Amino acid sequence: MFKALVITKPESGYRCDLTELDEAQLPVSGDVTVRVDYSTINYKDGLAITGKSPVVRSFPMVPGIDFAGSVMQSDHPTWKAGDRVLLNGFGVGENHWGGLAQMARVKGDWLVALPDTLSERDAMAVGTAGHTAMLCVMALQKHWTEAGVAPGSGEVLVTGANGGVGSVAISLLAGLGHTVVASTGRPQEVEYLKSLGASAVIDRNELGAPGKPLQKERWIGVVDSVGSHTLANACASTRYGGAVAACGLAQGMDLPASVAPFILRGVTLLGIDSVMAPMARRVAAWEALAKTLNREQLAAITTEIGLGEAIGAGSDILAGQVRGRLVVNVNR
Ligand code: NDP
User: Fold this and answer.
1) Is the shortest distance between the CB of 285 and ligand 1 below 6 Å?
2) Residue ranges of the alpha helices (H) in the chain?
3) Is the CB of 241 under 6 A from ligand 1?
């Protein structure tokens, strides 16, 4: 038997409970059984746990879009018992049982070898949110290299700054020598954001309301986890030839923008998805994180909780009350 969160949808309502499952109940469609050490709470886990958005496609469902642990048993040629692995995305925790449990059975094709220098806990302190931040940074770096834009030649905006994607993005960009401006609705966290490397902090209300299609050119790049008016205004204030990496929708799924920044300033909008990211890019991002992420800053953005606490944390993250990353110790 093992502990797991299980989401059910009785005739009326939607529930997420901490319960015990039998190993025999694990999905037969998986070919690798993993002993999970750590999982996390990302924004999407909050949507799944609370049922606020229909991200869970079948019931009962074990939530948890990511996990790290070691292989217990494998019928997949790449993996053997004892291998240290991590997984994020591929619909796990949405349409295949996920990581908010002490065991998972998944497809070996979805697993990534845990980089040697990354502990299971640190991998999940990064988690899907941090991995997505790295995908954003890699996409911006590719764009800047092609455009001949050097670190320090202008400001980079990070929206949703106190969130998981935002916190890791600030740390990564500042570590690369960029001048980072953090946009937040939590002015009380200015010192936290500066400790991660933000040079300046702006009020998210400056970006959150309808704005002009073209605004004063300011950013050489943007990491946006917020969407809606914030993304539209970020595009409208990006400098000629700059790029905006869009990965999230914390403000909204809409994009009330004009084409002006794209056709008059050559601004590039880079769409970032971690769920189905190709394996080579996925692995490159994890390896880059293992090599470059500042571990002191990672520790500073991380709060550890137990499996039972993950249910309440799902509501907290949707309410914008989580700072940085929540790592879930599934054995606590
Ligand atoms: P978090 O909740 O940790 O961070 C989101 C942050 O956005 C909050 O901390 C808050 O920052 C800000 N925010 C919240 N509500 C609003 C609002 N109404 N208007 C403006 N800003 C707001 O979530 P994650 O970092 O885990 O995820 C962020 C987004 O990225 C989510 O939409 C998520 O679905 C998406 N995502 C996408 C992925 C992909 O593959 N494309 C992968 C991972 C995440 P502050 O308090 O500083 O203002």
Assistant:
1) no
2) 43-50, 120-147, 164-175, 190-195, 205-208, 228-236, 260-264, 279-292, 295-301, 310-318
3) no
The strand order across the sheet containing 179-184 reads 198-203, 179-184, 155-158, 219-224, 238-246, 268-271
Nearest CA to ligand 1 atom 18: 251
In angstroms, the CA 48 to CA 56 distance is 6
Tens digits of residue pLDDT in 146-186: 998 888 899 999 999 999 999 999 999 999 999 999 999 99
* Sequence letter at residue 307: L
Question: Residue type for 102, please?
Answer: Q
Give dist(CA 240, CA 262) in Å, integer.
Answer: 9
Indicate the pTM of the whole model. Answer: 0.97
pLDDT per residue as tens digits for the range 259-298? 999 999 999 999 999 999 999 999 999 999 999 999 999 9
Q: How far is the CA of 43 from the centre of ligand 1 (A)?
A: 7
Residue 302 Cβ contacting ligand 1 at under 6 Å: no
